[in-house]
Structure formats: structure tokens, C-alpha cells
Amino acid sequence: MLSCRIGTEHEKFGFEFGSLRPMKYEQIAELLNNIVERFDWDKIMEGDKIIGLKQGKQSISLEPGGQFELSGAPLETLHQTCAEVNSHLYQVKAVVEEMGIGFLGIGFQPKWAIKDIPIMPKGRYEIMRNYMPKVGTLGLDMMFRTCTVQVRHDDL
Predict the structure, then answer these.
(1) Exposure string (b/e) for 52-70, b if CB count within 10 Å is 16 or more?
(2) Distance in angstroms (rounded) separating the CA atoms of residues 114 and 138
(3) Tell me: the pLDDT tens digits for 111-130?
């Protein structure tokens, strides 16, 4: 008998309430470390930089411009994925309210120039940032100014 699992990926833009500017990497690192301390996640490191978190089969990762992503576990029902996303948003909100940070789940960020968006400290993102302008005109916009919600459907 074939069984199926559903996973979600939920990305959002983080911003400073006071300036409405993008979060800096240092703020994102503080957010990740606070989630570790309060909600029992494990750190994912690249060198000495925190670049994500893992808890069971779900993870939190950073997209090139600091977009904050929940990569959900493979679950049996849509109701479970909804509960997982709600739990994630609760945890993030509990931490960011104390930091003066907000999140916005929109597909494209039209207000921030690419030069104003910090690049996250992942080696592959620096390679991508240098490569994208050589192969097209909108690659950097895709990297730094987009967010998405995706559904993964796995037949086992």
C-alpha cells in the first residue's frame, strides 16, 4: 500500500519595526539563538556562523537575503502541517516581539533595493550572487526579494 507525506516550506521577510529595514544577520543570529534557548532546537553552523536550526525532521533555514524559512517535516495530514506552521509562527513571534522585529509573508519585497539587503553568511550564496548577473537580469531579485510557501508531496 502506498502512503503519502506532506511537507510545507514557509518563507517570510524579517524587518525592524523602527526603520522598516531588513533584519541584519546579527539580528537573525540572535533570533536563532533565542529560539534554541527557549524551544529546544539544535543549531546548524557554517564555520562559526549560525545558519539554521533543526528539530526532529523539521528545520529553519535562511535564504540568501535573510528570508526566514520553516522546512516542515513530512507529515500525514494537512491538519498536521497547519499545526506545525502555527507552532513555528508562535515560537518566532514569542522571540521577535522582544527584539522589535516583525515578519511579513509576501511573495515579493518591492520596497528594498538589493544593495540594502544583507547577504547571509553561506558560501554558496556568495557564489550565486556573483553568478546570477552573468546569466540573466532577475536572478538577484529572485535570491533577495522573493518569499514563497511551497508544498512537498512525497509518495512512500
Answers:
(1) bbebeebbbbbbbbbbbbb
(2) 11
(3) 999 999 999 999 899 999 99
